[in-house]
Amino acid sequence: MNTSKTNAMRLLDGAGIDYRTMEYEYDESDLSGLHVAEAVSMPPEEIFKTLVTRGDKTGIGVFCIPVSDELDLKKAATASGNKKIEMIHLKELLSTTGYIRGGCSPIGMKKSYPTFIDETAVLFDEIGVSAGIRGCQIIIEPTALQNFINAEFADLVK
Predict the structure, then answer these.
(1) Residue 112 contacts by C-beta under 8 Å, 6 or more apart in sequence?
(2) CB burial class (10 A; 0-12, 13-18, 19+) of residue 38?
(3) How do strand 85-87 and strand 48-55 relate by DSSP bridges?
(4) Cα–Cα dist 127/7, whole Å
(5) CA angle (29, 31, 35) in 5-degree steps
(6) DSSP string over 56-116
(7) pTM attached to this predicted model
(8) Residue 3: pLDDT band with limits 50, 70, 90
(9) Which pLDDT does position 82 carry in this prediction?
(10) Core-most of 58, 59, 134, 147, by most CB within 10 Å?
(11) Kind of pairing, strands 115-118 and 59-66?
(12) Burial of 137 (0-12, 13-18, 19+ CB in 10 A)
């Protein structure tokens, strides 16, 4: 595939943050994170999907959780200072983040949104997040990612 640098990669390069990438063949009919984990030969607990929500108080929020888990909306609302949150509509994803489904990275969104990473990330030397396109993951040390995107670690999954 030999992907050119994505915006997320350029931002990390510019900040001097170590990461590596793993490319994989993606299937338009299966954009699941479990497929990604299998394709890059990493455990699903170490590959994080990026979910975008709208809260009743703080507006847009970004949550990175292991692909094997489901976002607990109550925990996510509490972590982000909301009473209630809901997933944004898929049709809003590109205009809100600059990314498409299956290629949504927590790095380099159109705006800087409050971002939360599931606390299990710190259990691993490195985790994978989307590089901003389908078919490529950024593999990065969790606290390096947290510091760069100004995220908080929180208990987010069911």
Answers:
(1) 150
(2) middle
(3) antiparallel
(4) 19
(5) 105
(6) TTTEEEEEEEETTS-B-HHHHHHHTT-S-EEEPPHHHHHHHHS--TT---SSS-SS---EE
(7) 0.94
(8) low
(9) 98
(10) 134
(11) parallel
(12) buried
Choose the weakest-confidence range: 13-17, 32-36, 100-104: 32-36
Long-range Cβ pairs for the range 57-61 (8 Å, 24+): 57/81, 57/82, 57/83, 58/82, 58/114, 59/113, 60/88, 60/96, 60/111, 60/113, 60/114, 61/85, 61/113, 61/114, 61/115, 61/116
Superfamily of domain 7-154: YbaK/aminoacyl-tRNA synthetase-associated domain (3.90.960.10)
Strands laid side by side in the 136-140 sheet: 20-23, 136-140, 127-130
Q: Which residues pair with 21 in a beta bridge?
A: 138
Q: Find tokens 């489904």 and name the residue.
A: 101
The bridge status of strand 85-87 relative to strand 20-23 is: unpaired
Write the single-letter amino acid at 129: V
The residue ranges of every structural domain in the chain are 7-154
